[in-house]
Amino acid sequence: MLTINDVSKKYGSHTVLNEIDLEFTHGVYGLLAPNGAGKTTLIKMLTTLLYPSSGAILYKGQDIYSMGEHYRDVIGYLPQQFGFYKNNSPYQYLHYLAALKGLKKKEMDQKIPELLKLVALEDVMKKKMRTFSGGMIQRVGIAQAMLNDPQLLILDEPTAGLDPKERVRFRNLLSELARNRTVILSTHIVSDVESIANEIIMIKNGEIRYKDSIANICSELEGKVFETEVAFPDVDQFRQHYLSLSERQDNGAMVIRFIAEKNADLNWLQVRPTLEDAFLYQYQDVGSGHYYADRSV
Ligand SMILES: Nc1ncnc2c1ncn2[C@@H]1O[C@H](COP(=O)(O)OP(=O)(O)O)[C@@H](O)[C@H]1O
Ligand SMILES: [Mg+2]
């Protein structure tokens, strides 16, 4: 349905995306990569806000940049930084945007309360947004992206700033919205996409490292992820030998989850690789510079 053909994007001499090819059909696509990897750059091209330096993006075979209004009818977009008027209520704000999008009064009167109900804001739809939590604002953002009942819903870091409870609620809402459309969402947080994405796309060094199901991505690490207890004095040395994925203190020792080529010790417990393991493994060498893997959430 949406095809990216040999697309590159450069800022001056800095190549952010290098000759990438991608195809989106149906379902939820999780664009998962650390900050600075090029997620927003890709999404801005998919929404025609940025032009590729070279290559083409096609929707059902047509160049999206030449589709104009026809393409805008198809997509809904929640930007990473989404602007709204704090003194507006969601009801006012959605009416304003609906008017810009050319919806008729009758359509608005039906659609807007429906959407506000969908994102569970009907009780506060006349309240000023300045009193809203991050999660509530993001739900207004989803509602505005859904105004035209888009075939293609594109969300750039929609869970940024949400607390864990809001995140769960957001994921549930997204799975519901994804039933009869294509959803592309970007995040640098594995758990945001782990349970809802049909496919994960990872960008690394300007290229597509993965576009695959979670099961297939994890299978690459099958038989290579272990956990073991390491005494505190030995922890540093252990880390030099093996890539530590996570560590927790337990009973006066450190329990380390790590990657090794094969089981080399009777005390190691082989565990099932997770998407988080695959993510940390992929981006192990990008702990400094403009990338970073956010392990705090
Ligand atoms: N307008 C711009 N001019 C120059 N460099 C930019 C611009 N926008 C983004 N970049 C650079 O492109 C890279 C990718 O950025 P971005 O797409 O925002 O990544 P992400 O959304 O994954 O965090 C970063 O190195 C960023 O500094
Ligand atoms: Mg971004």
Automatic annotation (TrEMBL):
Gene3D superfamilies: P-loop containing nucleotide triphosphate hydrolases (3.40.50.300). InterPro entries: AAA+_ATPase (IPR003593), ABC_transporter-like_ATP-bd (IPR003439), ABC_transporter-like_CS (IPR017871), P-loop_NTPase (IPR027417). It holds the Pfam family ABC_tran. Residues 2-230 form the ABC transporter domain. It comes from the Bacteria. GO terms for molecular function: ATP binding; ATP hydrolysis activity. PANTHER family: ABC TRANSPORTER, ATP-BINDING PROTEIN (PTHR43335:SF2). This is ABC-type multidrug transport system, ATPase component. It comes from Amphibacillus marinus.
